[in-house]
Write a structure and sequence with these properties.
The protein is an alpha/beta fold. The protein is about 30% helix and about 25% strand. It contains eight helices and twelve strands. Strand 2 and strand 3 form a beta hairpin.
C-alpha cells in the first residue's frame, strides 16, 4: 500500500516567506522553523506579482532549500517555458509546478513531460465555487478560466502531468478544513496522484483529506505550528486513524 504523504507548501513574495489567505499574502514569517522536519515533501511557490520583485530572490530560496532539506522539493510560480523548468531543476528542485501558463499553453505540459519526465510535472489547479459549480481561476486566483477543475485535471493528465495539486481558493488560510467535495471530484477524475491544499488547521483535517477527499497527499500552507515535534504528532495522529504514513 502506498504511503500517504504530508506536504508543506511555502509561499514566497520576492524571496520573503508569507502566509496567504484567499490567495493574498497576509502574514510574514521567518525561516527559523525550517530545521529537520519529517514532512514527506516541500513545495515552494513564488507568489510575487508580475512587475514587482526580483526573480533571483526566489532562485536563492530554492537553492537554499535544496541544500538544507533532504526530502523531495517542488518549485513553481511564474513558470512559463521549458527553460524555466531547466533553471529551477538546475537550482535544485526535483519537480516543477505549473499553473496559469499550462492553461494558456497546454502544450507546455507535454513539452516538459517529454524532456524531463512526467514525474517532474505538477499541474496546479486553483478553483472556487461559484454559481453552483466549481471553476478554475488563474493569475493568483483573480481570472476566471471558464474551465471546470475535474475536466482540466483530466486534460492535464492526458497531456503528461505526473501529479495534480488542487487548491480551494475559498478555503485558503481559513483553517476550517479542506473542500473535500472538490478534492474528491479531482481524485475520482484522474489516475495520477492528487495533492490537496487549502484550509487545513488541525490533524483531523489531514485525515479527512485522505478519507473524504481521496487525496494521495495532504498539504498545508499555514505553518505557525509546524516544528519537527508537531509534524511527528500529526503523523502519529494519521497513523492512529489507520493511515499508512512514513514516520
Amino acid at each position: 500500500m502506498l504511503r500517504k504523504r504530508l506536504i508543506t507548501v511555502l509561499t514566497f513574495y520576492d524571496g520573503v516567506l508569507f502566509r496567504t489567505k484567499n490567495f493574498t499574502p497576509d502574514y510574514r514569517y521567518t525561516l527559523n522553523f525550517v530545521d529537520a522536519w519529517s514532512v514527506d515533501e516541500i513545495v515552494v511557490l513564488d507568489i510575487t506579482r508580475p512587475g514587482t520583485g526580483d526573480r533571483e530572490n526566489f532562485y536563492q530560496v530554492v537553492s537554499e532549500f535544496a541544500r538544507d532539506c533532504f526530502v523531495p522539493l517542488a518549485a513553481g510560480g511564474g513558470v512559463k517555458t521549458v527553460e524555466d523548468f531547466r533553471t529551477l531543476l538546475a537550482t535544485g528542485a526535483d519537480k516543477i509546478v505549473i499553473n496559469s501558463e499550462a492553461i494558456r499553453r497546454p502544450e507546455l505540459i507535454t513539452e516538459a513531460a517529454r524532456l524531463f519526465g512526467s514525474q517532474c510535472v505538477v499541474v496546479s489547479i486553483d478553483a472556487r465555487y461559484s454559481g453552483g459549480n466549481y471553476e478554475v481561476y488563474t493569475e493568483f486566483g483573480t481570472q476566471s478560466s471558464g474551465l471546470q477543475p475535474h475536466e482540466w485535471a483530466m486534460r492535464a493528465e492526458e497531456l503528461g502531468a505526473g501529479e495534480i495539486l488542487i487548491t480551494s481558493i475559498d478555503k485558503d488560510g481559513s483553517l476550517q478544513g479542506y473542500d473535500n467535495v472538490l478534492n474528491r471530484l479531482i481524485s475520482n477524475a484522474v489516475s495520477v496522484p492528487v495533492l490537496v491544499c487549502g484550509g487545513a488547521g488541525n490533524w483531523r483535517h489531514f485525515v479527512e483529506g485522505f478519507n473524504e477527499g481521496d487525496a494521495s497527499a495532504v498539504c498545508t500552507t499555514n505553518i505557525y505550528h509546524f516544528t519537527e515535534t508537531s509534524i511527528n504528532s500529526a503523523k502519529a495522529y494519521m497513523r492512529d486513524a489507520g493511515l499508512t504514513v512514513r514516520v
